[in-house]
Specification:
Elements: E1 2-11, H1 12-30, H2 33-41, H3 46-64, E2 77-81, E3 87-91, H4 93-106, E4 110-119, E5 122-131
Antiparallel strand pairs: 1-5, 2-3, 4-5
Length: 135
């Protein structure tokens, strides 16, 4: 059963401008510690990386509830990658507790599917939140 769907598209150049203007202040406010570690080790495509992750946070926020994710904290929503490159969502802090509360309320684990893509000017993220299959 699907509980929420969220999508976000944004102009990569816009995130690049914000990142250049506010630098670490922007990075620390929006991105989580695991993402920041990756950012520090990136040699190229920083704007694409930042844009896709920002879109993922927005899409997750939109997918969570009709109140548009009241109380969700962007740097506690991280998009990381498995070794094969497939992205996944990682939650910490209040976000992790929020997910656990939802799971307790529904008496089921939640499943998060995410897809990221970019093309020259734009980055897009698509998130689906559903009930995980019963083991």
């Amino acid at each position: 059963m699907i509980l929420g769907i969220g999508t976000d598209i944004l102009e990569i150049k816009r995130i690049g401008k914000i990142s250049n203007k506010y630098d670490e202040k922007f990075i620390n406010r929006i991105y989580g510690p695991n993402e920041i570690t990756i950012i520090k080790n990136l040699n190229n495509n920083l704007d694409n990386f930042l844009s896709k992750r920002f879109a993922a946070k927005e899409a997750t926020w939109k997918a969570f509830n009709p109140n548009r994710g009241a109380g969700l904290i962007f740097n506690e929503i991280e998009t990381l990658n498995y070794k094969n490159g497939k992205p996944y969502l990682f939650f910490s802090g209040k976000m992790k507790r929020y997910v656990k509360e939802k799971e307790k309320e529904l008496s089921r684990k939640l499943k998060f599917d995410i897809s990221l893509s970019d093309e020259r000017q734009y980055a897009i993220a698509f998130v689906v939140i559903s009930l995980a299959p019963i083991d």
